[in-house]
Design a protein that fits this description.
The complex is a heterodimer of chains A (115) and B (107). With 115 residues, chain A is an all-beta fold. Chain A is 0% helix and 54% strand. In chain B, strand 4 and strand 5 form a beta hairpin. Classes of the chains: A mainly beta (115), B mainly beta (107). Chains A and B meet through strand 5 and strand 10 of A and strand 5 and strand 9 of B.
């Protein structure tokens, strides 16, 4: 079975550029989560969706960050304009119905470096 | 107060040793509890769920203490392959991850 698929695996770009991260959740999973992980702050929840609808975006750090889920099989996290402090590993995760009682399955992550 | 408090370690133990981690949570309404394992430069993966009565999976034992609001993970007969970061997770309205405890098992 295919797991959560993220792309790209690595992204290196210059400050000020737009960055788009992509995620395909596990088929049939109703919940999709975007996380950011750094050494200093650990794993932080940015936003999560239920049935393609954003439920909680309180973790989105600034207006420079936006996320969409146009359908059940695709989500994007966009940073515009990007800054060096956005450098981190960004994970997408999905879980089935009843997410708060079900474990999440993570993608391989996108390692983002902003120069 | 943080939602989740976890000793970051690092824990360095010899092969065959028994090691235990604790993790405390602040939200008494937390409903589900998990331990995840994360290898270096990899994604977190579910290690085991934590049930109210405690549960065991091979060398791993997880326990929940609702009165004191913590969960624990015990690893017996440590293997080199157990070296990783262990993340505790609590749920309420969303998932709350601990910052992880680093374990290195030494030959």
């Amino acid at each position: 079975d295919a797991g959560v698929i993220q792309s790209p695996r690595h992204e290196v770009t210059e400050m000020g550029q737009e960055v788009t991260l992509r995620c395909k959740p596990i088929s049939g999973h109703d919940y999709l989560f975007w996380y950011r992980q750094t050494m200093m702050r650990g794993l932080e929840l940015l936003i999560y969706f239920n049935n393609n609808v954003p439920i909680d975006d309180s973790g989105m750090p600034e207006d420079r960050f936006s996320a969409k889920m146009p359908n059940a099989s695709f989500s994007t996290l966009k940073i515009q304009p990007s800054e060096p402090r956005d450098s981190a590993v960004y994970f997408c995760a999905s879980s089935p119905r009843g997410a708060t009682h079900q474990p999440q399955h993570f993608g391989d992550g996108t390692r983002l470096s902003i120069l | 107060r943080k939602e989740v408090e976890q000793d970051p370690g690092p824990f360095n133990v010899p092969e065959g040793a028994t090691v235990a981690f604790n993790c405390t949570y602040s939200n008494s309404a937390s409903q589900s509890f998990f331990w995840y394992r994360q290898d270096c430069r990899k994604e977190p993966k579910l290690l085991m769920s934590v049930y109210s009565s405690g549960n065991e999976d091979g060398r791993f034992t997880a326990q929940l203490n609702r009165a004191s609001q913590y969960i624990s993970l015990l690893i017996r007969d440590s293997k080199l392959s157990d070296s990783a970061t262990y993340l505790c997770v609590f749920t309420g309205n969303q998932f709350y991850f601990g910052t992880g405890t680093s374990l290195t098992v030494i030959p």
